[in-house]
Specification:
This protein is α/β, with parallel strands linked by helices and about 350 residues long. The protein folds into 2 domains: about 130 residues, Severin, CATH 3.40.20.10; about 160 residues, Severin, CATH 3.40.20.10. Helices cover about 35% and strands about 20% of the residues. It is globular and about 55 Å long. The N and C termini lie far apart (about 60 Å). It is found in: Cytoplasm, Cytoskeleton.
């Protein structure tokens, strides 16, 4: 197993990627490691197809400096390609640092969103021709082990479901819209989610899918401190957990965190069902909470295969919180200014 660097996402990157997923007008986000954190340094809008837009990347890539490029795919546009650009001429230390951080980047932003990855050692690898060669290699038939076939089936289910999720606010096709796709919700499950938006303090709601009816049901609902949260999440079956966490690390003082838990020992049928529905259910939860007085759903969806790792320190790292209390006014200003686009030229009168 490759070693990890321990470098996490910055709050700016979390917000930038969440906004890009929602608006769908961003083609590329360039990410670098700076001050032991992953930060966005520039973005490029969608102007044509992915192959056409790749020609725009040349000016954003340095000859000797590694970076990551988060690239939106065309079909479906809810999926992303993670490009690891590590030139042969880069410093050995930088090569090792970017190699050991790549998996952490994709996992932290949501592993189900990144359905492809490309390793580039020169600018030529990140061109329309280089990407075409990558796709030909991907399409070439390869013998799969039983385990690899299992994972391929899971990814196929995820891609099918993801096509129904990030389609923009005008075409969100689930049971909250035209009813064509999506899981049914029991009234108890829906009410439990909405109560989180009305309540105060630390509360947890655990949801599970009833496979026979493809219905989302309420597993449990209770008050819970961070240090007892993991004991309330099923250890051998997948689940979706919503944790309303009161804290002093951001101006909101209370965030509702969406957690997709899928233990490694879960049956394959369960894993496929849950992984293919995770993104869609996250959006449905968001829609429910938007109807409540305090809509505080954290923009980043957390994923884990081991509920015991869900600690206060884990939440702080994954959500980009600092270790000390945050001044409300300063934090609000930072959120408004982070990753802001430069102003355009003034209009002539």
């Amino acid at each position: 197993m490759a070693a990890t660097s321990g470098i996490g996402l910055s709050a700016e990157l979390t917000r930038a990627f969440s906004a890009a997923v929602e608006t769908q007008n961003i083609r590329f986000i360039k990410v670098v490691i700076r001050n032991e954190s992953l930060v966005p340094v520039t973005s490029v809008d969608v102007t044509g197809s992915l192959e056409e837009d790749l020609a725009l990347l040349d000016s954003h890539l340095a000859e000797n400096d590694p970076c990551y490029i988060l690239a939106r795919l065309d079909d479906p546009s809810s999926e992303w390609l993670l490009i690891s650009y590590v030139p042969d001429s880069a410093k050995v230390r930088d090569k090792m640092l970017y190699a050991s951080t790549r998996n952490s980047l994709s996992k932290s932003l949501g592993s189900t969103v990144f359905t492809d990855s490309l390793f580039a050692t020169s600018k030529a690898d990140v061109t329309p021709e280089g990407y075409a060669a990558h796709k030909r290699h991907q399409a070439a038939p390869q013998p799969l082990s039983a385990r690899e076939q299992e994972m391929a089936d899971i990814r196929a289910a995820e891609r099918q479901a993801a096509g129904n999720v990030y389609e923009g606010s005008r075409a969100r096709q689930n049971h909250l819209g035209d009813g064509k796709v999506g899981y049914k919700w029991t009234p108890e499950a829906e009410d439990a989610v909405k109560r989180l938006g009305h309540g105060e303090g630390n509360q947890v709601v655990v949801l599970q899918i009833e496979l026979s009816t493809e219905t989302l049901i309420l597993h449990s609902s209770s008050e819970a401190q961070v240090n007892t949260l993991s004991s309330l999440i099923p250890a051998s079956e997948p689940s979706f957990t919503l944790y309303a966490w009161s804290h002093s690390y951001s101006a909101t003082k209370r965030d509702i965190i969406f957690i997709y838990s899928c233990p490694s020992a879960s049956p394959i049928k369960y894993r496929m069902m849950y992984s293919s529905g995770a993104l869609q259910i996250f959006r449905e939860v968001k829609a429910f909470l938007e109807t409540t007085p305090s809509f505080l759903l954290a923009p980043k969806k957390l994923e884990t295969s081991d509920p015991s790792e869900l600690t206060e320190q884990y939440f702080m790292q994954e959500l980009g919180f600092s270790s000390g209390p945050v001044d409300d006014t300063h934090n609000s200003a930072m959120q408004r200014n982070a990753f802001a686009r430069p102003r355009g030229p003034a209009r002539r009168r």
